[in-house]
């Protein structure tokens, strides 16, 4: 039997397509499209931008999904950050209206509006619904933004008296904080990808890929330095998927790769998976992460991760199925150079051990964990 009404509150970017449809960030929209099969009504309260949509945006495909727009907020400057103060009344109004009659409500954090929505859910608004928080950031981040630290403190204290889903498995983890894999793959993705994984041989030259923002926080400077030190004959192609304000800078720095480098900008899931089907290594030397779902997508296609040891990445990736780098002690360039000397058979073995990771990040597994970890536990 379907549940009645799910409300999801997030800062997910939404736009209007050239056809006039509301479209949003593909990873979140795909998740909500999946969940809509299990509720009579799904409401997504999220940000709407009056600008062109990136290619990784998708439309809602189920008629029982309603999108409720709130004004976008945040930015790089102090002025833009403080502008949220003028938008708080409308955001509160839209959220409060949306949760009326809800049977389940999910608030996605960390985001600036969590600073005022968490106290409202904890102390002001009456709750006749199941309420849980999805904390998608780095749960173990030591020096994150002040707003993130305040939200985590509020959740650890459990003032909202709710379940919190987090990335990873941590010592002294509060009992109401539930380790969770956030979905990005369908059962069909898993089945289709097997043929690509089985047919990879990991012979030189290699195909490398990166998916994310093209900026220093995602480790682009480490990637540039590493690629400069790899003999050019060992590189077949380098695919960079994403965009950033320093895009032109990185294009100049990687021009030495000539026709081996591809700057794709944002791509749809189908286009990203087409690249992963042919790639050998996934590069992500980030300064901070929760758990990037794209690692699971790479695992689905046997793309071996060479990633930084941050967030909960080490809870899923180790020396048996990938390569972890402590950027405070190790050179990313040296690690990549050593990886390229490993035999194809050993790389194939790592990829084989990597593949089961992908199954943890399916929508089917996500729904199962919601039922046993969130809904069933809250009935007791």
TrEMBL record:
Gene3D superfamilies, A to Z: Glycogen Phosphorylase B
Stated name of the protein: Glycosyltransferase
The organism's place on the tree of life at top rank: Bacteria
All copies of domain Glycosyl transferase family, residue ranges: 198-345
A Pfam family reported for this protein in Swiss-Prot or TrEMBL: Glycos_transf_1
InterPro entries: Glyco_trans_1
